[in-house]
Amino acid sequence: MKNNWRILHPATMFFLLTLAVIFLSWICNVYRLNVVHPQTGEIIYVQNLLSPEGIRWILRNVITNFTGFAPLGLVIVAMFGLGVAEHSGFITACIRGGVKGRQNKCSIILWVIALGILSNIVGDAGYIILLPIAATLFHSVGLHPVGGIITAYVSVACGYSANIMLTTLDQMISSTTQDAAIAAGIYQSNTGPLSNYYFMLFSTFLIAAIIYFITKKKLLPSLGEYDGEVRFEGYKPLSRRERRAKGLALIIGAVYLIIILWATFSSWGLLRGVNGGLIRSPFIVGILFLLSLGAGLMGMVYGFMSGRYRTDTDVVEGLTQPMKLLGVYFVIAFFAAQMFASFEYSRLDKCLAIMGADLLSSVEMHSLWILLLFILFTACINLIMVSATAKWAFMAFIFVPVFAKLGISPDVTQCAFRIGDSATNAITPFLFYAPLVLTYMQQYNHQTTYLSLLKYTWRYSVYILLIWTLLFVVWYLTGLPLGL
User: Any idea where the domains of the chain sit in the sequence?
Assistant: First the structure.
């Protein structure tokens, strides 16, 4: 029986999780579990999915739950551009031209980690675009491609709050912190987007070092050498025609990038929001399409210039190539979408999170110890409710005023929240992009399950949580400023 559970397909796992959510919603509804929303004062009850209304909701929404699954459209659009770039040979040509031999293993690992951590500048694009490229990069230098997927995944997931640049998450989180501080009558000027900048800047290098160490010492030795079906064609030198095609494609890509940046940051500002900002602007909302379009353009230019493409039919073939991989993803995503939608409809996530927050806020301890408990609590809640903005939308209104009474400023509370919120992203099955990660891994190992993913990622989450928290303690005790 134990072995049977180990080989559960990811689609089966999400189906069983859906059944668990349905059963748990019925139990909680029987006992009339309810909480009070700290910001609105609304009484929130768990909605029973086994009630007549719940069953009707399931039947009415089973299709829209799937078609409205947040990552589904993003994945398809991104795969169009990546498909053309891969099918035309452009990505392989870039790797063959840039990676001269297997002595570049360490630099490849570092590049993947850096790009993964920094990718949160453009939201969730790292989950979709970087992971398959990382697999190819690792494969090209003789490393296991699944190692590339795992390394990129934990870099994006666990490093989601850290960056050397200001991100949209900084602005959204700090805005909620300000609202909570104002609502509680707390005067706090240091709650802007840069209120945690110094700490997160240092954290970027710390997290990168942790991921690199674990990847080198633990992950890659456990994976061993890859001997699967997917093969990399090796280090065959690029022909003169291929070099010219790659050069022209890169020039077109550079021109495209300049146009996008000019349309975003110039005085014209077509891709900025109506208020001139970047939050929810066409640039941020459409960044995945813009990246996919850029990759597709460079792929087409390379394809036609290298002789790989001759007609538009060849381009369409490149667009359809990823659909073979997405066939598996669609099946996994269907069951995952039902689970996510059922969990949200039942309100179990909010009830459990608010109950835990109320319990923690009632504990009387020294300020440092309560902050450590808060980080651990946030890390646990993140396993069932992964959206940082959604969690902080109600947690800020509970913890900012309570911690202020202990002498803890809102920017410190916000910083502690962001540590717990990021560290466990890589081990939760409730992450929207978990089905996609499993799909990428199954391309190289058909026996991949969620337990396989957990086996490789738990160490990253635990080490990052512990060491990042230790950094926070040192920072707190020394009184160093968290940001501007």
Answer: 2-67+101-234+322-478
What's the mean per-residue pLDDT of the chain? Answer: 87
φ, ψ at 36 (rounded to 5°): -110, 125
| Structure-block tokens of residue 305 | 């210039």
**Quick one: tokens of 210?**
């942790």
CB 74 within 8 A of CB 124: yes
Buried b vs exposed e over 215-234: b needs ≥16 C-beta within 10 Å? beeebbeebeebeeeeebee
The answer to whether the predicted template modeling score (pTM) of the entire model surpasses 0.90 is: no
Cα–Cα distance, 37 to 135 (Å, whole number): 43
* pLDDT tens for each residue of 200-224: 999 999 999 999 999 999 999 999 8
